[in-house]
Design goal:
heterodimer; A: 160 residues; alpha+beta; Alpha-Beta Plaits; 2 domains; four-stranded antiparallel beta sheet; two-stranded antiparallel ribbon; 5 helices; 31% helix; extended; B: 393 residues; alpha/beta; Aspartate Aminotransferase, domain 1; Aspartate Aminotransferase, domain 2; three-stranded antiparallel beta sheet; globular
């Protein structure tokens, strides 16, 4: 895998000078590479991984399984786009297995999500059924541990 | 009052305690210290390796292992040396599992050295070779490697250090504390001198997997005529982040391993059983972990070298281990003064280079076995420290 993408994929909080030093490339080259990845749509964006439990009182996420009938011309893509259009929907995955789509949906209360599923999702033409699983706690997100204290003490001793 | 000095061995009283410790003691009493002084991986042992250790405990495998180590482990060690270095060892006769690499070093010295034998030790290097040579009755002969040679051992310097009492050369590469490596052509030059003078080599390869810049690590045992003259020391501590498991190994000529095995048998019995089960898993399924950790260290290495060079402390590019060894002579301070003031003023702990031999004076050892965020904070503080030094002078 491209080392630059691997580095940014794990942590994008570096200056281009730092990235250049770490990868042993000139800074201009790194800047140009990043620009190119952005233009080509390889890099889609940069986001902080936020532990929302720490900041928001009223906040609920649910994982929703969706069974659908694929459309004749566009297959699953059109169904996916209809789901993606809602701001409440954070992620959309097409699945192999017992159901077709897996959605991460976010709202302020459980009631919000219940209403969203009942009124918006399940009424989309082609949706056969839904199953809603409320997320109780996020322990790990995008490779980061959200559950244990951030600054773990360094358990190493200087022995010699 | 009993005068214990009359009971104690003269040699042990002559040995100085390790100089690295002093700074650790200062750092320990301070809050908010950013340490760059630790010489072990910051990674935890990969989970699948830990899991095998745990599994062996669950199954109640808590007895001694055979003196030499479990045969499955011995076989895997030999497979590994074949696969990584293209050297063939017989697992039954040429391999011994030890309690860390350091036990192997001690066993080798005590099996080979007699009173008055000279052992050539390049410095700066890890602190154990000199005292262990002395305890084995040998006389350490120090070669000072130089910054302008990128701290590699030069054949001419080796030739100049040899006398008719010389028996053994210690080859500590990739090197702690300098991060220097020896490439194949360097080793070929050394090999010529060793063969000409009929000597043995103790090759401490504990950091061999941490060799950077797409270079494959090379063992001197793979150079023509050196297989029969080399005792290889290696282990699991650095490459698999397994320091606390205390597991190393020795590879070498059958006749020497047999003698070392006797010492090991009487002094140690056998290496830790749980660690051996974990190590089998490490060698069978751990190659990707090693690559992952090496890539990670490599990025930090470049960041730190770049950091020191850009703040005006010249730093040759270390190609191995996880240390950089910047020159601090431009500050006008001695290594100890530099480290003391840095820890007092900025609460950053690094180790004075002279803790690894006199030739380390004028340098400091900086470990980059820390997270990138940690390294960035430390570099920032060192930069401030240098700016303040400049202002005050």
């Amino acid at each position: 895998m491209d080392k630059l993408l691997k580095l940014l994929g794990a942590n994008s909080d570096f200056t281009t000078a730092e990235i250049a030093a770490m990868l042993g490339e000139p800074e201009d080259y790194i800047k140009a590479q990043i620009k190119e990845y952005e233009n080509k749509g390889v890099i889609k964006g940069y986001q902080a991984v936020v532990d929302w439990e720490k900041v928001e009182q009223s906040y609920v996420e649910a994982l929703i399984e969706l069974k659908v009938t694929p459309k004749k011309e566009t297959g699953f893509d059109e169904m996916a786009e209809m789901c993606m259009a809602f701001d409440e929907v954070k992620s959309v995955y097409l699945m192999a297995g017992a159901y077709d789509f897996s959605l991460i949906v976010r709202g302020e209360t459980m009631q919000d999500i219940a209403m969203f599923v009942a009124k918006k999702l399940s009424t989309i033409d082609g949706v056969i059924s839904t199953a809603t699983h409320f997320i109780m706690r996020c322990y790990k997100d995008r490779g980061l541990n959200l559950a244990s204290p951030q600054h773990k003490e360094d358990g190493r001793l200087l022995v010699l | 009052m009993i005068d214990y000095s009359k009971f104690l061995n003269d040699k042990i009283q002559y040995i100085k305690p390790s100089g690295i410790r002093k700074f650790f003691d200062i750092a320990n009493e301070m809050e908010d210290v950013i340490s760059l002084s630790i010489g072990e991986p910051d990674f935890q042992t990969p989970w699948h390796i830990r899991d095998e250790g745990i599994d062996s405990l669950k199954k109640g495998k808590t007895w001694y292992s055979p003196n030499r180590g479990f045969s499955d482990l011995l076989k895997e060690i030999c497979n590994y040396y074949k696969r990584r270095f293209n050297i063939t060892y017989d697992y039954k006769t040429q391999t011994l599992v030890t309690v860390g690499g350091s036990e192997g070093i001690d066993l080798a010295f005590r099996s080979i050295i007699q009173q008055g034998d000279e052992v050539i030790i390049p410095q700066p290097s890890f602190v154990c070779y000199e005292p262990l040579t002395v305890m084995a009755g040998g006389t350490p002969v120090i070669i000072n490697t130089k910054n302008e040679d990128n701290f590699r051992l030069k054949a001419d310097d080796l030739r100049a250090a040899i006398t008719d009492k010389t028996k053994l050369l210690v080859l500590p590469f990739p090197n702690n504390p300098t991060g220097a490596i020896m490439e194949k052509h360097d080793l070929e030059e050394i090999a010529k001198v060793i063969i000409e003078n009929d000597l043995m080599v103790l090759s401490d390869e504990i950091y061999s997997e941490l060799t950077y810049g797409n270079r494959r690590p090379v063992s001197i045992a793979s150079i023509d005529g050196m297989y029969e003259r080399t005792i290889v020391i290696n282990g699991f501590s650095k490459s698999y982040a397994m320091t606390g498991w205390r597991l190393g190994y020795v590879l070498g000529p059958e006749q020497i391993i047999a003698q070392m095995t006797k010492l090991h048998q009487y002094g140690i019995m056998s290496a830790p059983t749980t660690a051996q089960y974990a190590a089998i898993e490490a060698l069978r399924n751990g190659d990707n972990d090693v690559t992952h950790m090496r890539d990670e260290y490599d990025m930090r290495r470049r960041l730190v070298v770049d950091g020191f060079n850009s703040m005006g402390l010249s730093c040759f590019e270390p190609l191995g281990a996880f240390y950089v060894f910047p020159c601090i002579k431009s500050t006008g301070l001695s290594s100890e003064e530099f480290c003391t003031r840095l820890i007092m003023d900025k609460h950053v702990a690094v180790v004075p280079g002279n803790a690894f031999g006199e030739s380390g004076e004028g340098f400091v050892r900086v470990s980059y076995s820390y997270s990138i965020a940690h390294l960035k904070t430390a570099l920032k503080r060192i930069k401030e420290f240098l700016a303040e030094l400049e202002q005050n002078s």
